[in-house]
Amino acid sequence: MKVLLVLYFGLINFWCFSQKKAPRYYRLFELSQANPDTVFYLSLSKQRLDSIPPDIYRFTELKGLDLSKNKLIDIPLDFQIFSKLKVLNISHNKLQFLPISITKLLFLEELLAASNRINSLPDQLENLENLKKLDLYNNEISTFGVGFYKLSQLKEIDIRGTMYGTKLHKEILTKFPQSKIAIDPPCKCMD
What we know:
Leucine-rich repeat, LRR (right-handed beta-alpha superhelix), disordered N terminus, alpha/beta
């Protein structure tokens, strides 16, 4: 009888775990009605934003924020108010650098910054000790900075779309042996 009970509760736990739903992302038009303490995920994707809307700063409990496919050229310093963020998507914008304010988001686990114009990474990137996934696909990175190389906890890195010489290519692969790295082949023309 005990064995049957253990199996029964094991199956219930498995079923509950497998039924786990993706988080609900609120949209901008829903925020006027929303309680700031109950909004954890927000999508501002494809809103043609060229700056961060001031209305969102009251949602300090955010764990996921999607700002992709906009026209952002900067992210202000007060963005660090979102200290509980775990996932930040700033892909497909017009950012030329990775803002320092992002390096203050100490619980960040995923930083998606593909298809911008980022040409260097700040040394303060090393502050993101919980970062597991870094997507810098299709940027113009010429300098990674010391902070990038100190992110030994990274599990996934995507830096395709930028040409590197053989020396830098080898250095990246050597520094992150335990990570899944998406990287283009090196170009000897850059050595």
